[in-house]
């Protein structure tokens, strides 16, 4: 039996994470057998539509998919809904396997508006100083490496 934590989700009601957030999915694996308990673990991630999850995606090498815990760094997944499935297979009996899935929605993070470089806390009071407010240049999009103000 595989229990995923957090695990209360479905395709119609996925857990929500911002694209700028890292997140973990942990598992508790319980065995009901007398044989060897050696197993292989494999996480798969599928992109979902409103009705099904059929397209497996390939992750970059920094995401380790062969452990009982799955760590997804920020900005790894694009916006959308995903099915994350852990499959545990007995090494001595490859026909014996179990799977469990959770669903996550990746949402946009709000833009951080900076009117001046390094934020408005850098503004000091003084006489005859020009202050250039340029949020298009100094704002930040936490979901991307660069900010496009257009």
UniProtKB/TrEMBL annotation:
Q: State any GO BP term from the record.
A: calcium ion transport
* Family matches, as InterPro entries: PKD/REJ-like (IPR002859)
Q: Which GO terms describe its cellular component?
A: plasma membrane
Residue intervals of the PKD/REJ-like domain: 29-146
Q: Where in the cell is it found?
A: Membrane
User: Pfam families this protein is in?
Assistant: REJ
UniProt keyword list: Membrane, Repeat, Transmembrane, Transmembrane helix
Return one GO MF term.
monoatomic cation channel activity
Q: Which residues form a coiled coil?
A: none
- UniProt protein name: PKD/REJ-like domain-containing protein
User: Lineage of the source organism?
Assistant: Eukaryota, Metazoa, Spiralia, Gnathifera, Rotifera
